[in-house]
Amino acid sequence: MKAQTLYDKLWNAHVVRQEADGTALIYIDRHLVHEVTSPQAFEGLKLAGRKLWRSASILAVADHNVPTTGRAQGIADPVSRLQVETLDSNCAEFGVNEFKMSDVRQGIVHVIGPEQGATLPGMTVVCGDSHTSTHGAFAALAFGIGTSEVEHVMATQCLLMKKSKAMQVVVEGALHKGVTAKDIALAVIGKIGTAGGTGYSIEFAGSAIRGLSMEGRMTVCNMAIEAGARAGMIAADYITINYLKGRPFAPQGELWDKAVAYWHTLHSDEGAQFDQMVKLDAAQIKPQVTWGTSPEMVVAVDGCVPDPLMMSDAVQREGAQRALQYMGLAANTPIVEIKIDKVFIGSCTNARIEDMRAAAAIAKGKHVAANVKLAMVVPGSGLVKKQAEGEGLDKIFIAAGFEWRDPGCSMCLAMNDDRLSPGERCASTSNRNFEGRQGQGGRTHLVSPEMAAAAAIAGHFVDVSKL
Amino acid sequence: MNKFTLLHGLVAPLDRANVDTDAIIPKQFLKSIKRSGFGPNLFDEWRYLDHGEPGRDNSRRPLNPDFVLNQPRYQGAQILLARENFGCGSSREHAPWALEDYGFRAIIATSFADIFFNNCFKNGLLPIRLAAEQVDELFKAVAANVGYRLAIDLEQQTISAPNGKVYEFEVEAFRKHCLLNGWDDIGLTLQHVDEIKAYEEKHRAAQPWLFA
User: Fold this and answer.
1) CA contacts within 13 A on the Cβ side of A190
2) Cα gap B110→B136, rounded to integer Å
3) Which of A177, A192, A336, B132 has the fewest CB neighbours in a 10 Å radius?
4) Closest Cα to residue A146, out of B116, B191, B170, B50?
5) Cβ separation of A158 and B203 shorter than 8 Å?
6) Distances from the Cα of A315 to the Cαs of A229, A287, B128, in angstroms?
7) B30 to chain A: nearest residue by CA?
8) Which residues contact A308 (CB under 8 A, 6 or more apart)?
9) Which residues from A are below 8 Å from B34, CB to CB?
10) Distance in angstroms (rounded) separating the CA atoms of residues A427 and A459
11) Which helix (H) or strand (E) element contains residue A41?
C-alpha cells in the first residue's frame, strides 16, 4: 500500500461519500460549541424543525464573553449576558452537555477539550472557531468552521469539504533555553507567511516537535491557522497517550487498550509524500516578538523593527508602513527598547498549567515595572486555575503585582471587559496582533509566556534567553 | 440561500493585503444572536471615526472620509476588489454576513483565507481568485474610471470588463452548482441519511470508544 501521511489516514477514515469533483462528506466525531458562533445555528435548526444528529458528540462552554473578575455577580453587559444565556437555554433544550460559567471545568473551549480527554487521537474535531487547529496536537483532524457549518454538523454529523494539500513543517534539533513552542510557531509563520499554509493541512514533525510536551504541541498547532492552514497536526506517541490516560472523557479498560493500539498507527508513514516541505533548525530560533499587525510581522527579540523602505514589494511595503503607523513604532528601533503599558498572559495559545508555571518562574520574587499599568494572568480553565493555586502560582503572581483572574478568552479578543485603550501597547501571549483585536486602537505584540512575564517586570521587552 | 447567476455590479477597491475578519466585523458585534443586520458595522473601525457598539444608531456616527467605501463614487458597490489573503484570521461567519448585508455579492482578490472562502459560499457570496497581475490591472481600471462595473457570469465562469476584456476564473463544480441553484447544504446532505448511518455503524465497530 502507498505510504500515507497522517492527514491521509485521518481523512480516509472519515469519508462517508464523495462527489465526482472530489467534494466529500466527512464524518465528525467531536463538535465543540461556544456561545458566539452557535446561536444562529441552533436557531436555524429550530426554524427548519431539525434535530441534533448525535448530541453526545457535542461539548459546549461559554468562553468568549465571560467576565474574568466578579463572576458571582454575573455578566454586567446585557448583550454578552444574553448570548451566554442563549447558549445555556439552547443546550438545555437540545440536551447538550454544557460546562456552565459556575462549573470548575469551564474554560476556553480549546483548553477544556484536551483537558477533559474529549479530544482524542484519530478524531475529526470541529468548532465554530478558527483555533480548533489546537486539537490537531493529538493526531486529530481538527479545524475551525463557520456558523452555517456548525448547523450542518449539528443536523447531519457531517461536513461537505474537499481534501486539502499536505505540508510538513519539520523542526529538528534542540531549542535554546528560553525558547518555547510559541517561538517555534511564530518563527514558522515568519518564514512561510500568514498565507503560506492556505489550502494546506500542516503536519509538524521533527525532533524539536517530538520533544515538546502536549501543551507545547497544542501551542504550535493552535497557531497553524495564523500560518493560513485550517488544520495543524502532530503524530501520536507516548507523550500523547500518557497525557490522555485517566481523563474523564477518555476511554477506559479494554476500550483504552484497543484505542491505544489504533492511536499508535497515527503517524505519517516512512516515505509518505507531502505537497510541500518546510524545514527549520530549532537551534536557530530565538525568542520572537511581533512588531506589526499581522503575525507574520515578527522578528527575534535581539532584532530591530524592520524598515519598510528596504522592502521591494509594493503591497508588502505599504502594509508595513501602515502597520508601523498603527503600532506607533519607528523603523530600526531595537525590540528591547519598546516599552509596554499592559501585559496579557492567557488565551487558547498559552493559558495551560505549563504556561502559568513558566511565567511564574520569571515573576517570582520580582515586581511589575512602574510603567506597566496592568499585568493580568488569565488561566485557560477553572481546573488550570485550581491546579495553579494548588502550586502557589497565584501567590507568586499577586506578590509580583500581576492580577490573577478567572478563566476565559479575555483580552485575546476583548469581547468581555478586558481590553486595551487606544494607543496602549501590550505584550500578549495570545495569537493575533490584528488592528483593534485587543481593543480599538490597541497595539499588540505577540510573545511567549516567559517573554510576557519578563516584559512585565522590566517594563520593556527583554531577551529571556539571556536571563 | 440566495442564488448567484449573473451580476453586473459597481466595483469598490480595498487596496490592502491580509484584511482579517476582525477588521471586516469587529468583535463587539459578534455578541448578536441574529444572522442579519451586520452591514452598517462592516469595516467599522476603518469606516467611522468613533468607536462603534451594538445597538447604536450608525446613521448618526461620524464617517471617516478617507475610507474608500465612504467615497460617493463607490456607493452601491456590489463587487469588492481586494488583495492577497482576504478574510484571514477568525472563522466568524459574521464577516460574510456583514459583506452580504452591506450589499456585496462578489469579492475578487488575489487569494482568500480558507475558512472565509468557504463561509462565503454558504451565504450566496461569490469569492473569485484572480492572478496578481489581473487584480493589479483591475485596481488601476477602477481608479481610472468612475462608475467602473464588471459583469460576472458564474455559469460561464467569466468576468467581463467594460473594455471588452474577459477574465476566466475557477470555481469548484459542486460549489458552483449549489450557488447557481441557491441550494441549502443541509437539505442536500440529508438526502444521504442512509449512507451516513451505514458509515456511522462501521465507524462505531472500528472505534467503539468514540461512541462510549
Assistant:
1) 21
2) 9
3) A177
4) B116
5) no
6) 22, 28, 20
7) A36
8) A317, A318, A320, A321, A324, A331
9) 40
10) 10
11) helix A39-48
Beta bridge partners of A124: A141
State how far the Cα of A35 lies from the Cα of A30, in Å rounded to an integer: 17
Look-up of cell digits 440561500:
B1
Chain B residue with Cα closest to A250: B209
Under 8 Å CB-to-CB from A417, ≥6 apart: which residues? Answer: A67, A76, A77
Is residue A220 within 8 A of residue A232, CB to CB? The reply is yes
**Hey, of A109, A298, A440, which one would you mutate to test binding to chain B, going by the most B CBs within 10 A of its CB?**
A440
Q: How many CB atoms lie within 10 A of CB A3?
A: 11
End-to-end CA distance of chain B: 37
Q: Which amino acid would we find at residue A291?
A: W
Q: How far apart are the first and last CA of chain A?
A: 51
Alpha-carbon distances of A115 from A120, A218, A241, A246, B185, rounded to whole Å = 11, 11, 13, 11, 33
The DSSP code sequence of A190-209 is HHH-TTTTTTEEEEEESHHH
Q: Tens-of-pLDDT digits for all 212 residues of chain B?
A: 889 999 999 999 999 999 999 999 999 999 999 999 999 999 999 999 999 999 999 999 999 999 999 999 999 999 999 999 999 999 999 999 999 999 999 999 999 999 999 999 999 999 999 999 999 999 999 999 999 999 999 999 999 999 999 999 999 999 999 999 999 899 999 999 999 999 999 999 999 999 98
Residues in Cβ contact with A367 at an 8 Å cutoff, skipping those fewer than 6 apart? A400, A401, A457
Output the nine-digit C-alpha cell for B190: 440529508
Q: Tell me, letter by letter, the H, E, C secondary structure of A395-419.
A: HHHHHCCCEECCCCCHHHCCCCCCC
User: CA A112 to CA A190: how far, in whole Å?
Assistant: 29
d(CA A90, CA A38): 9
Q: What angle do CA A226, A232, A238 make, to 5 degrees?
A: 135
Q: Which residue from B minimizes the CA distance to A84? A: B31
Q: CB-based contacts of A254: which residues, under 8 Å, 6+ apart? A: none
| Polymer length of chain B | 212
User: Which value does ipTM take for this structure?
Assistant: 0.96
B186:A128 CB<8 A = no
Say whether residue A97 is in contact with chain B using an 8 A CB cutoff: no
Which three cell numbers mark B160? Answer: 467581463
